[in-house]
Amino acid sequence: MEENYMSFESENKNVEKIVVSNKTYYLVGTSHISENSVKLVKEVIERVQPDTVSIELDKKRYEKYTNSNQWGNTDIIKIIKEKKLVVLISNIVYSAYQKKLANTKGTTQAGELIQAIKSAKEIGANIQLIDRDIQVTFKRMWRHLSFLEKPKLFMTFFTEFDDIEQDKLEEYLESDSFDKVFISLSKKYPSLYQDMITDRDKYMSTKLKNNSSQVNVVVVGKAHMKGIKEKLEKRTEFSLDNLNEIPPKKLSTKLLEFSLPAIIIILLVLSLVSGFEVGVSQLLKWLVWNGGLAALFTCFALANPLTILTSFIMAPVGALSPVLSVGMFSALMEASIKKPTVNDFMNAQDDISSIKSIYKNRLLKVGLIFVLASAGGAIGNIIGGIELFKNLI
């Protein structure tokens, strides 16, 4: 085994051996879109013959790769009710970004992780899933990002590598230049880097320490190699409970959520106090602006007529509630009428790259309706609120 490793060390800088507390770890740093990484993972596992293969996956992603029907049978109604639709769409966008890069080289997205699972089963090694739940990671990331950073980040996912020639992409990913992407990321989005890289390094290194296996091949992305290595060597302990904790909303977000409904309610009350007929007239105008624009924007998504009606009726409820949104009601209605199929889930990563495909994919269309209905309701609420204020002065 030692001789095998020495050849790894001389052949590939993406393999490192660490011995801590009589446990041997072979860290294999990979690119999630590189065919070379697939070959490297296969070779290391077959030559080392470890007790355990630890993989940068959580349970949900493991099931997605090993049992595609599990992902296809996701209950979208439950997702919406639990307010996880934004997290789901964020996950699809992130996966689509990775798949876009993989397609430029004709490789399989996360091929090295799939290979790690396959090779571990072939040699009879245990499989350890060491990554944090992807939903927890995205929730933490979303809570930490500012209002302006969120749309900016979505654009970054699809433009970061556009200026790199396709035939040089893999060379770029395998070079030291790739590290500059993460250095740049940490400067542009400090909280994102903390949630996506640093905290997951802590989580995965802790899971590795808790594993009793003597020989362990660890398959992780290149971005995690340095952090995991340092934390294993320093034997630093981290609380998994703390790393799984969802942070509360920012104070500014809470104030915004409660202040806008409060302002509208105050304006409506003042309008009624100034004169019943005038107040009723202003209330109706506000309802038309709020519900009308929510319904109009829902029309832009080519939603079912009942969904459009739902947007009109529920927009005022969403506007006056700090915890509900018209988009949630509209998305629930559309998903109930036209439930996303298994194929919609399976094709979501591909379909999200085309506007035409988004409209055809029921899952993505539900997400689009959520966004447009919410946006229309918000704009209508602002315009209606301004009209209320103008008539009071």
Automatic annotation (TrEMBL):
CDD domains, A to Z: TraB_PrgY-like (cd14726)
Keywords recorded for this protein, A-Z: Membrane, Transmembrane, Transmembrane helix
Keyword Kinase appears in the UniProt entry: no
Membrane-crossing residue ranges in chain numbering: 258-276, 283-303, 309-332, 363-386
Family annotation (PANTHER family): PHEROMONE SHUTDOWN PROTEIN, TRAB DOMAIN-CONTAINING PROTEIN
UniProt cross-references to NCBIfam families, sorted A to Z: traB
Protein name: TraB family protein
The organism of origin for this protein: Enterococcus faecalis TX0630
